[in-house]
Amino acid sequence: MPFEVPPLPYDYAALEPYIDEQTMHLHHDKHHQAYVDKANAALEGTEYHDSSVEHVLTMLDELPDDKRTVVRNNAGGHANHSLFWEIMSPDGGGEPEGALAEAIDDVFGSLDELKKAVNDGGVNRFGSGWTWLVHDGTGLAVYSTPNQDSPIMQSDEPLLGIDVWEHAYYLKYQNRRPDYLEAWWNVVNWPAVAERYARATTKEHAAAG
Question: Are 78 and 39 spatial neighbours (Cβ–Cβ below 8 Å)?
């Protein structure tokens, strides 16, 4: 089945005042839809036209040269944005709990240090891209990627990603990307991030035998 834009799990205005309603309409309905349309068009007629986006992103080298970059950019955009809507919530913010909170403290020292690392990755990403908290197969890591590159491409499990393309914040924050990154933590959906972390650690333990 071709890729589809998932419906938002909340109203377009639900993340106000941190992310404005107009941005959510444009970001979800226009930008994400464009990634899906272009990815589907590029994959049509290939053996991957019915594959999951996660599978496609691990098989980019198998694609013909004339399709690889288009699929990388647009299937990556679809995967990244599908996660982005899920890890935000109008009831977001606060602090993580349980195993995720313990892992954050172990690796980064505190939640504040994690936020600083993620925000720094976003501020220092030249041009467009994403800043990530991932599970890299052995534990938590933070890094940023250009354009719509997904951590899935390097076999990492994305847990939390913040979009730092200008379309994600420019209507409200203009060129103040640091302000947007700081504000974003007020809508982070920690239970959704914790669920992704639990799945990633289950895979890690299975791989370890």
Answer: yes
